[in-house]
User: Which sequence fits this backbone?
């Protein structure tokens, strides 16, 4: 049984990065208000790891790495284990990819929703488009503010986060797939062809952390936010500690202490009022959690735990990626250098009167161009692929 150092992660495909080899490779939001919330080709070669808008800025990097690196890497952990390989089929659909991701560039819409059983909502707190190119070993991630004023011919003006739930409602009434509608709309908006859409929810964070047995983080301040409205219960003390999934989710979501009372008039954080958090504070927490999860994965026991990781991802993700395309992505991108991922965040001033973020035109145009350049192979990598 083949494996690589670091818990069984597979070698990258020799077909990736636009090079040909004779060897065959293996398979690679915030709490606030009232709860709204690839190694080198060949045998086991792995490349060294050379090493505005309103509120949501930190979530972009968080969801991107969580979805692209974590979710796809998780599948790769068990690629050589028969049982795990079968479980990985739970993610993705049947059929053959039209554009294999290990040889051709693709684009995907990534949507992070606030769906939880307690709220039963599907607002997309995170809306991103990711373009990936195996020939240049690069990726570009564009994010839109959830409250961004979205204007496009043929569509009613709404906040960015309101389109997916509208399309989902239409789908349930017999309309087209909500994911297809999002791909079509965002593709027209950015001037690119979007191949896939993946939707994840808050529970992905909680279940993945629990699946790896918790993560160690340094909680930067005391945090208390409790509400009966959606069952949110964040109660953390400052200091280095191991968090379970529920605590980790609270750690990255915390914005401010509870300012509302229960139905009986009780303040659940009475005597434990904690400081507010800035966007920068939440950005740092989200990045720390990502680093802790990825560090845990390096020593992760594929045989005993990979199945639970795949289960955690599968039950919280809805995607139209084919099973084989998922494996292509694993082979190609599971250890893409972070320096080769470009982030383009579209921001703008938020209007208290309208509730909209008026997205900056120069940032939007730069984002469009960056996606188009990525798919055309014009994004030059900071860390070149291994020969």
Assistant:
């Amino acid at each position: 049984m083949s494996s690589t150092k670091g818990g069984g992660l597979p070698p990258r495909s020799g077909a990736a990065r636009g090079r040909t080899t004779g060897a065959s490779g293996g398979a690679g939001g915030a709490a606030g208000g009232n709860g709204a919330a690839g190694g080198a080709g060949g045998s086991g070669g792995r490349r060294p790891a050379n090493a505005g808008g309103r509120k949501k800025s930190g979530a972009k990097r968080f969801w991107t790495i969580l979805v692209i690196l974590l979710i796809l890497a998780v599948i790769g952990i068990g690629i050589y284990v028969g049982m795990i390989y079968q479980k990985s089929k739970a993610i993705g659909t049947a059929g053959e990819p039209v554009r294999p991701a290990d040889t051709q560039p693709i684009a995907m819409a990534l949507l992070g929703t606030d769906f939880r059983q307690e709220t039963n909502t599907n607002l997309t707190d995170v809306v991103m488009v990711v373009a990936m190119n195996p020939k240049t070993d690069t990726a570009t991630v564009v994010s839109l503010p959830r409250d961004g004023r979205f204007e496009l011919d043929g569509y009613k003006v709404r906040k960015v986060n309101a389109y997916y739930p509208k399309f989902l409602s239409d789908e349930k009434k017999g309309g087209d797939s909500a994911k297809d509608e999002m791909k079509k709309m965002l593709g027209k908006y950015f001037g690119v062809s979007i191949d896939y859409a993946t939707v994840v929810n808050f529970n992905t964070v909680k279940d993945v952390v629990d699946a790896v047995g918790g993560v160690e983080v340094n909680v930067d301040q005391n945090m208390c936010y409790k509400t009966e409205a959606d069952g949110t219960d964040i109660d953390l003390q400052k200091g280095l500690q191991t968090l379970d999934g529920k605590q980790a989710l609270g750690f990255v979501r915390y914005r401010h202490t509870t300012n509302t009372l229960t139905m009986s008039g009780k303040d659940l954080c009475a005597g434990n009022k904690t400081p507010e958090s800035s966007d920068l504070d939440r950005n740092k927490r989200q990045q720390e959690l990502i680093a802790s999860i990825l560090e845990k994965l390096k020593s992760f026991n594929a045989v005993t735990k990979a199945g639970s990781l795949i289960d955690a991802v599968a039950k919280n993700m809805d995607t139209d990626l084919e099973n084989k395309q998922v494996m292509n992505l694993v082979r190609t991108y599971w250890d893409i250098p972070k320096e080769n991922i470009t982030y383009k965040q579209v921001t703008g001033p938020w209007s208290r009167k309208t509730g909209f973020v008026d997205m900056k035109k120069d940032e939007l145009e730069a984002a469009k161009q960056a996606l188009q350049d990525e798919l055309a192979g014009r994004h030059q990598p900071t860390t070149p692929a291994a020969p």
Summary: Confidence is low (pLDDT under 50) at residues 1-11, 13-57, 70-85. The two ends are 26 Å apart (CA to CA). Residues 28 and 76 are 5 Å apart (CA to CA). Residues 279-298 form the longest helix (20 residues).
